[in-house]
Amino acid sequence: MPSTVVTLKVNGRAQEFLARPGTTLLDALRESCSLTAAKKGCAQGTCGTCTVLLEGKPVFACLVPVETVAGRSVATLEGLSDGDTLHPLQESFIELFATQCGFCTSGMIMAAKGLLARNPNPSRADVVRAISGNVCRCTGYEAIIDAVLAAAAKMKNATPIRKKAAE
Amino acid sequence: MQDLETIDTRFFSAEREADLDVVGTTVPRVDARAHVTGKTQFYEDVSFPGMLHLKMARSTRHHALLKKVDTRPAEKVPGFVRALTHKDVPNNWYTILRLIGVEPNDEPVLPEDRVLFQGEQIVAILAETAEVAGEAASKVKIEYKDLPAVFDVEEALKPGTPAIKPHGKNYFVYEGHHCRRIRFGDVDQAFKEADHVIEHRYQSAPIEHAPTETTGCIVKPEGNGRFTIYSNTQACYFTLDNAALIVGLPFNKLRVIGGTVGGGFGGKVDVTVEPIAIIAAMLTQRPVKYAYSREEEMQVSSPRAAERIYIKDGVMKDGRIIARKVTLYVDAGAYSRHSPYGTTKAAAHMPGPYSIPNVWVDAHCVYTNRTPSSAMRGFGVTIGDFALESQMDRIARMLKMDPIELRMLNAYRDGDMKAHRKKAEGCALVEVMQKAAEMTGRKLPERFKKMSSLKPVGSKGEGI
Predict the structure, then answer these.
(1) Contacts of residue B32 in chain A, CB cutoff 8 Å?
(2) pTM of this prediction?
(3) Which domains does chain A have, with CATH numbers?
């Protein structure tokens, strides 16, 4: 089967590339788009290190054939900060020591981003559920859960101010 | 942070020369910003035009002679580039710790006439893509003649069991001895004098580190004749030195870029992927990537060694342990890797943090047809502690004694001679237990509250 031209909207920008049949969204991001924040920890949908947002929802990019999502929008960790200004999730992960080796971090933050988009007031149990598909072998998870909750609190407090500024 | 107390420097008088001031403060991690922005460069985040992918045809047998290895079916897969066997490896035999004088070189980069464990790499296949390399590797035809396999450490040491390796017996030799030994006092005499003798057997299974990033490397031939090795090794110089010796290049022809490890825990200090990837890059003059799949990481990478430990203690009614005899077996699996060192650590760790006047230890580093074991967080010590502390709890139960008090009675004090002839210094076990008791609201009798690790000169242990 021949390769196909695939277009994706990645972090707000249109990306066009050739994909062999069966190419995963993860390989397309890493190899064709040079976006390497999403990791390949297992290539079988069990570790979560490849988590990205597809139309705002967390998916395991290693399980998604890229042809099936042509034309849709994808968000990766590279697009999260606004220039030098970090997203509250990124700030909290630094402040609360939620990173160690860093290999799960990208997937964790994107899974958390997906959660906060649909539930800005998550309980601890909500956070645990949201990252339940993401394996971390270093931290023991508690610092990560704390960081997500801290980011949620920050965003809640920050939102009205930003809205006001926009008005 | 308000709970932190001033450090009592008396316990560190010999070690502390500067006033260190980091404890009690928050120091941001230097790598955190790169982690949360996705800018940290792991080895797999680089790639090069024309990069080849290496996959291994692996043993499906635990112990077998290689009758025939036929790579022709693999060569027919479109995208196949080259197969590598032991004949392509300039210096095929090595052992990682030869760098510190450990011998013999008991492990082949690629096996010559036999395989010693299931999953052992046999033939390296190079191809244009990882998928093709995997498919071609699965097509290599290997004919085996099965040999009897040994999976149990004590069975491996039985007189009738055949040696599984071409050289030597089924154990590592320590300065002419069949095991690492410690002899301190006279355990047999002490067992006669003891009020109780208590003996138990402890055993653990191999434990896989399961890092989220699998083991791997990318090797790039440079225009100046050098090779750049992008690796996730935890031990850049183990890799550089061993690889140079294996591939037969001067050390300065290899450059290792490493130090960023997606989870190591000791699982990435072996030198398993880099040498063959360097040879592949030398022979093809193309960049080569050799990355373990998740399955390979779980099946093939070295786990923590399984151990079996027998502990026999002579105990007095008042709780003093007067003799401890330990027979310990570390399952090294098929090859030495770091296990001879781990077994020495295991021996030196006995009899635990306790002053016991009579100690006898035989620590065996045993070869079996299981996945080679190696380093993992406190290897040689962790399983020993599980055994020792389980034994302490059993002694306490037998004597109907508080397990904390039993440990405090026997805890070593500053100046005590340990079984392996090192003086105990900077001891704080008594104080740690006192603090733990206080923090958990556990009432200690007055004489235990007064105990100290600072042993008055001439005394023979307080509280007894």
Answers:
(1) 93-94, 97, 99
(2) 0.93
(3) 4-79 (3.10.20.30), 88-162 (1.10.150.120)
